[in-house]
Design a protein that fits this description.
The structure holds two protein chains of two kinds.
Chain A (H helix, E strand, L loop, with lengths): L1 H24 L2 E6 L10 H8 L13 E5 L3 H9 L3 H12 L8 E3 L2 H10 L3 E6 L8 E7 L1
Parallel strand pairs in A: 2-3, 2-4
Antiparallel strand pairs in A: 1-4, 1-5
Chain B lengths: L1 H19 L8 E15 L5 E2 L9 E2 L10 E9 L4 E10 L9 E12 L2 E9 L22 H4 L6 E13 L2 E13 L1 E4 L2 E4 L4 E10 L3 E12 L6 H8 L4 H9 L4 E14 L2 E12 L5 E12 L4 E14 L11 H11 L4 E15 L2 E19 L5 E17 L1
Antiparallel strand pairs in B: 1-4, 1-20, 2-3, 4-5, 5-6, 6-7, 7-8, 8-9, 9-12, 10-11, 12-13, 13-14, 14-15, 15-16, 16-17, 17-18, 18-19, 19-20
Classes of the chains: A alpha/beta, B mainly beta.
Chain lengths: 144, 405
Amino acid sequence: MTRMRFFHCLALVAVWLTLASGCARAATLAVIVHPSSGVDSLSREETSHLFLGRIKHLPSGTPAVVLDTTSLRADFYRALVNREMNEINAYWARLKFSGRTQPPEQIEDAESVLRRVASERGTIGYIDATRVDKRVRVVLLLEY
Amino acid sequence: MTNRIFLSLLLTLYAGTTTAASDDAAEPLWNFGGFGTLGAGYHNRENVIYRRDLEQAGGIEGHKLGVRMDSRIGLQASASFTPRWSTTIQAVSRLSADGDWKPMLSWGFLRYAPTDWLELRAGRLGADIYLEGDSRHVGYAYTAVRPPAEVYGVVTQDRFDGADLTVRTPVAGGLGSLKMYGGQSRGDFYLYGQRVTQDDATTLGATLEWANDTLTLKAAWADIHARNDVSLLRLRDALTSIPLAQAQYRASQIETSHHITFAGVSARYESGPWSLQGILARESFSQFPRYTGWGSSVVAGYRIGAWKPYLTWGRISFEPDESALALPPPAAALQTVYDQVVDRLTMNQRSLGAGVRYDFATNYALKMQVEKVRASSSSILITPAGMPVRDTSLTLFSVVLDFVF
């Protein structure tokens, strides 16, 4: 009996650990735009074109202002294009100093990104999905 | 002087642009930044100077620590006047063909991009032949210490004053682009102890590129056409004076007009910790006796946190066409000159290297690299007198600090 209780406890701990690690891994980033941007959703490909500077307009034709959330940058680019930050920085050095384009504007915290996206029509950024509210529209979810 | 003319032109264009586009944006958005490399190198071959390209009047001398070859600094200002109009001005100071550090205008253009699918630029531009950005100066953008000398070391007239037009389209899950460009060539090279500049040369080129998140494929073609290169006219006159049919024939092959042509295909793969890139380029120089050859390079790296160990391999083979000539004994001196001219750009050089890139802070990378270079003939490697080197090998150690700001 004692032994069964022990195995039950062990099983519960195992389930709890699995769920806990599962929850930790299932954190989600939300790519957000202004509700009147004319964009309902973006594919992963369209999103990477925008955040890697290949295109500069939202699919609706609105000129895009792309924002990086500094604290989430590494997770975002790993989730979006499977590249580490050092590679992304080198990538931007290539583009910036060959006169092609400028990197996204760096914004320190998610709240500021949320505020900017909520107030400027062409702005696109990313925040933790749990912080999304009705001032912005989610166009892509990325798990990391 | 040319730089000043261009800056004036850009300012004039800028004035026109702000007027024309004033309804789109009130204030231009300026960005300032720069990049640089502090580099040191050492090799073990006496009387050989290692250069990274033909432009440099010097490099790393044998058994001496050299800091001039890889070191450089660049400053850039760019402004967006509207979403459609922008400008970029960039100057780079590096060891030049004059052996000094006089800054050159590397970029200085006005850009008009009415949509994502069309872009027009005019001003000082770069030939789009590089896989990692249209520049050989931004060390931070490269995995290895420097661009492969065996491919890009011989193409130093990579600036031009003119225009380029790029059209893009989504294709096969990525973005495809076609760029066409042309203008007045800019750039020098240093050979036989002197700087060579071809002011009248024109550049034409086209690049086809496709990129998605992990793969970039590029096919690039560029042609530099010089119309009035008189450097071999004395040889032509001397050969004409020899009463020998073969000498007359060789003299008739010497022209003042010639082409330097680059046609390359390249690929870069980046995913997770892996990065792999390779390029194969056909290069030719149509001046007598006409040289053709291949340059190729592979760089493979694997990132482990802040560290990225890598391997490099490069090879160039650049050979003259058949041009045998046997002059009579009284013309022995002319024979010597002729043989030197025929052989003046022959290159057979290969390198194999290993290194590590250490991104110890954001926007800073420290790289350490060792490479074995073997050359049966090379114009990139020179003697202290500036002459090409034959039958040599050396081990080159390099340490550089690359940064952007």
